[in-house]
TrEMBL record, chain A:
Record's protein name: Carrier domain-containing protein
SUPFAM superfamilies (UniProt xref): ACP-like
GO cellular component assignments: cytosol; membrane
UniProt keyword annotations, A-Z: Phosphopantetheine, Phosphoprotein
PANTHER family: ACYL CARRIER PROTEIN, CARRIER DOMAIN-CONTAINING PROTEIN
Keyword Phosphoprotein: yes
Organismal lineage: unclassified sequences, metagenomes, ecological metagenomes
Keyword Translocase: no
Domain Carrier: start-end pairs: 4-81
A GO MF label: acyl carrier activity
Organism name: marine metagenome
GO biological process, one term: lipid A biosynthetic process
Length: 82, 248
């Protein structure tokens, strides 16, 4: 799976939890999931569990601590898939 | 479980010991404020405290107190209801550590110092995951050292006035899965006059309190296991609330 494909899937998974549609329209690697997309912090766990299902990976709490931006999420998934 | 840096561990020891030395000057006054100035009463208080002490005698597992959340004084009322005041002077490790929202009390130095003294660890809810993670690791460390902590398994004070099963704080499950033997104490607290959420309970209110050790299970690992545990605690609080309203 290419990085662009992972990025597209990540955005698709995050989309239902986003409260800032404007930020979503301009989403890139640097977009902060909590601050820019206004995702509720409690929902970030659901998002990461959706990553697990979609990409068939297992994410530990400590791994998830590093996920602040969309780029962080993509990097984590790439690492788990490699 | 990650080991905390020496500096952080030393800071906790210092905070705990200063609080312990000064305990008579804050534990008793807080109980006085709750009991006399606010006029609060705990229903069947002698029975509640006897049950709590019996529970502690039966098990020396680390205890994470998980109450429902309706007011900003819940943690103080729960601690007072379970342990009283004098008892904590001689069982200081049982005075729970709390995780108040930093922005609620950070504007003035005296409140910051006061919170530090009374075993508070500041947390910024919805903050960066690394920062929240650091706080969780501090709580894990304290529990593993035989201290007691209190954390609300709902993500905030319930706006509906009922336990909100959808508002689950992941941190509770994460702590429980990472501290060997740690047990959750599900606590349901409610003042008779508490209709919905508020800053403080009504003056002169009488509180019903019930508690039980939660029995958790999950077939999963990792974050899914933590989430299962958090949900099961909130589900149990929902059940305890139903029992409360059924018994009125």
């Amino acid at each position: 799976m290419t990085r662009d494909e992972i990025f597209a899937k990540v955005v698709e998974i995050v989309k239902p939890f986003v409260k800032s549609e404007d930020a979503l329209a301009a989403v890139n690697d640097e977009t902060n999931i909590l601050e820019d997309l206004k995702v509720n912090s409690a929902r970030l766990v659901d998002i990461i569990l959706n990553f697990e299902d979609e990409f068939d990976i297992e994410v530990e709490d400590e791994d998830a601590d590093a996920v602040n931006t969309v780029g962080d999420a993509v990097a984590l998934i790439e690492e788990k898939l490699s | 479980m990650t080991r905390l840096p020496f500096r952080t561990r030393a800071a906790h020891t210092f905070q705990r010991e200063v609080g312990r030395l000064a305990a008579a000057f804050w534990v008793i006054p807080i109980a006085f404020i709750l009991r006399v100035l606010m006029g609060y009463r705990i229903k069947d208080v002698a029975q509640v405290r006897a049950r709590y002490r019996a529970l502690l005698k039966e098990s020396d597992h680390p205890l994470l107190i998980c109450p429902n959340h309706l007011t900003m004084m819940d943690s103080a009322v729960v601690a007072w209801a379970l342990g009283g005041s004098w008892w904590y002077l001689f069982h200081y490790s049982r005075m729970p550590w709390n995780l108040p929202e930093y922005n609620n009390y950070s504007s003035q130095l005296p409140t910051r110092l006061g919170a530090w003294l009374i075993k508070c660890i500041p947390v910024i809810r919805g903050g960066r995951r690394e920062d929240v993670s650091r706080v969780i690791k501090r709580v894990q460390h304290l529990l593993s050292r035989g201290e007691t902590a209190l954390i609300f398994p709902e993500a905030g004070r319930s706006r509906s006035g009922r336990v909100e099963a959808d508002a689950v704080a992941h941190a509770v499950g994460r702590i429980l899965t990472s501290v060997p033997g740690c047990q959750p104490l599900c606590v349901y607290l409610r003042g008779d006059r508490q209709q919905t959420w508020s800053t403080v309970p009504a003056r002169g209110d009488s509180f019903y309190i019930d508690f039980e050790v939660g029995e958790l299970h999950s077939d999963h690992s990792g974050m899914r296991r933590s989430r299962d545990f958090s949900r099961q605690i909130v589900d149990r609080l929902v059940g305890m609330e139903e029992e409360y309203f059924a018994g009125r």
